[in-house]
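Entry for iron/sulfur cluster complex. Fields follow.
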Amino acid sequence: MVHIRVDGTAYEVREGLTLLQALDDLGVLMKGVDIPHYCWHPKLSIDGSCRMCQVEVEGMPKLQIACGTPVRDGMIIHTRSERALAAREGVMELLLVNHPLDCPICDQAGECKLQDYAFEYGQAHSRTREPRRALKKRVELGSTIILDQERCILCRRCVRFCREVSATNELAVTQRGDRSTIETFPGKPLENDYSMNVADLCPVGALTTRDFRFKTRVWSLEEVPGICTGCSRGCNVHVGVVDHEVRRYTPRRNDEVNGTWLCDQGRMTYREIGAPDRITEPAVRGNSGQLVGATLDRAIGRAVELIREAVQKEGPGVVAALASAHATNEDLAALRGLLRALGSETHAAPVLTGSSDALLVRPEKAANAEGARVAGFGEPGLLFDKIRGGGVRVLIVLGHDVIHEQFLGTPEPLAALDGVILLDTHRSRLEQVADVVIPGRHLAEKGGSVTNHAGLVQAVPAALEPTFEAIAEAQVLARFADALDVSLTDEPERKREVD
Ligand code: SF4
Ligand code: SF4
Ligand code: FES
């Protein structure tokens, strides 16, 4: 460790880091120690090209770039000295010489570093009369990203991302001096599984995602912490909400989980929340054999009837549950509690699997696959056998992963049951055999905790209310328990322990 002093405050930092890295490591960069920077990013190599991070270091005649200057014991740094501020003003003036200043029609306005620093270090008037550089305004770099070359400040974050993180090398700076532009290599569009991260990295409005651009002004967005449910990595996201609608996921930094990245596929899972195939009202199978819309009370009442009848007729062991690995730990605890209270231990959680990579994407395609295992919901094979053998009469199903080809493939095996009680967020063929359907809430609508592949339990708040009437699955199960006059909290065992 070495000791440094920044603007009069003493810090102990790790040796071998540069000043920006050390401050980031301490968690004070831009949270107490504000050193503006464009090209530096905590997860990319050091470029040292923008010169915005210049600071004064006692004993060094020239200003130093904080991103590239290693800390030394006894170093005394001034981040807001007159010379440092004047240097930043100079950098801003040069960056703005050719900038189109089209903030009113720029999608980055409101979260743009050029705007922020121009406000802080820029001048009110331009000293140039020469025409600004005219470059291409809408370049499709690939299927996800649009480039506005005029807005680019050539920080090369996007180039380094493609070189160092996705390792796909699609982008480069071509030409020299003020003719420099970002381009894709001929015949090699920006197409990789992480392509949209370059829009998050771009400090200005040069790179925007085709998905989000011009959909919403960012100052209308409420950003709430959330978790991507695309796989068992559990990447941390900001859920961007406007008018009860999720408009985007952007990465929320968590060095233990996803660093500062998201895969494109996971990023787009926000669309599931407002998808047209959401289940929006409860339903009960009527005398005609059709599912008929019902109140939540009626649906819960019918579900309870089915459970009670089965237990009275054939004993508690005939009630079973197929949980979803998308369910929260709270939902799973409620489900397990209900089964235990009924005297049944027959439960499982089908977890879909798919492709993975060495960066983030995990093979298990549900956020809480590990949480389900920890809660005792294992592979569904034995439960399927028990269903086929007639040992299950009523099945409570959370989610519809079980209908996937990797598991049942068809709802047929469940058709012979006396009761299928479905708590789900999205429509599926399971409705063909369900006797009761109750709408569920997405993680972003209910909050709660999920356990990622490495065993890390992560909790998030609800980001929005659904636009239809639905309560969290754990609450539905609690209402089942109330109506059945049992407790979800494994009370008998706890009481025994206390006794
Ligand atoms: S496009 Fe954005 S990220 Fe890429 S070099 Fe230009 S300003 Fe930097
Ligand atoms: S790696 Fe998994 S958790 Fe992360 S963004 Fe992709 S799908 Fe979501
Ligand atoms: S952030 Fe240091 S030179 Fe760009």
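NOTE: Confidence is low (pLDDT under 50) at residues 491-499.
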